[in-house]
Amino acid sequence: MKLTLKMAVLSVAGTLAYLALAIFGRGGVAAFFAHPQLAATAAVLIALGVAALFTEGNISSGEREDRSNRWVLGVFGVLGLLMGYLPAYADRIDFWTFGGEGVRWLGVALFAAGGALRLWPVFVLGRRFSGLVAIQRDHKLVTTGIYGLIRNPSYLGLLINSVGWSLAFRSGVGLILTALLVPPLIARIRSEETLLRSQFGAQYDAYRARTWRLLPGIY
């Protein structure tokens, strides 16, 4: 089963809205695409949006959900809107920007790499990947592949992707917004780990003991 029509519409609408915010912040279509790096960033964004259409990610509450963590979604939504617009706007007015064209290209590379890492676990988990903190039907603990090293690769991908977006606009504001993603991400990780431990018990404890939470060798 592939992405539902509802999720497909949300994915397409979200991708286009995010790009539209950046174009508006940068001062219009001509101003945005005048930079080949920003054109490349837009192409990567669209490619990631298309790839997402072939996943089974969902927003199902499954068999059991930690509803107390839903506040994180609101924070992500607000930060996402700000991230879409402010780095581009700051770039346009040259507010708190740094570096040159090389920094922009580095941003494109990180944006693509982070986006790929963000989507990879969605393909691996299939319908078990939900936007909510929930245990899905026939939920199984995946401990191989990228999950054999870190327990939350999709969140690491989100952070790398956000850093890349910020650098594509040479934006210090974008890096601050990326840093603001960390507290709600940690809250969500803790909520997920508590739920998984309650579901899988000693199996999850053993898995957690041999892997990193987010950054290999650090966290």
Automatic annotation (TrEMBL):
GO BP: any one term: methylation
UniProt subcellular location: Endomembrane system
Keywords noted in UniProt: Membrane, Methyltransferase, Transferase, Transmembrane, Transmembrane helix
Superkingdom of the organism of origin: Bacteria
InterPro entries xrefs: Metal_cation-efflux_comp, Phopholipid_MeTrfase
Membrane topology label: Multi-pass membrane protein
Stretches that traverse the bilayer: 38-59, 71-90, 102-120
Gene Ontology MF terms in the entry: methyltransferase activity
Protein name per the record: Protein-S-isoprenylcysteine O-methyltransferase Ste14
Native species: Pseudaminobacter salicylatoxidans
PANTHER family according to UniProt: BLL3993 PROTEIN
Location, primary (coarse class): membrane
GO CC terms: endomembrane system
